[in-house]
Amino acid sequence: MKTINWLGWVAALVVGQVIGILWYGILLSAAWMKAMGMTEADFVGTEWRMGLGILNMAIILIGLDWLIRRLEARTWLGGAKVGLAACVFFDLTVVALDYVYAAGNLSLFWIDGGYQLLTYTLGGALLGGLKLKPRAG
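Above: the chain's sequence. Below: its structure in token form.
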């Protein structure tokens, strides 16, 4: 655990939450709720889900940091490429199964997938490129 890039991890976690608030709360709120078949009233008393979302993202970012270190992609661009690849080859393909087999709403796939692409790519860039400076001896 001490090899984790904690600075990049915290920054990626915060940035991911800010993107989520902007993406789902402001930019695509109406389209997302329509695709989900929900109204604002459906969200009353569900604030606890935000905590689970943060925990989920925290775990994803630990895995992404591990992958970036294993692939030695410890630059801004290298981390972004690993994040993008992880999203496309793992996250989006798993999420797509809901639409392949459960006949999900395809517009929801694009909304959720766009958020995932952004957070994985920016999270990877932060994990790969944001580092504490070594202490001067």
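DSSP finds five helices and no strands in the chain.
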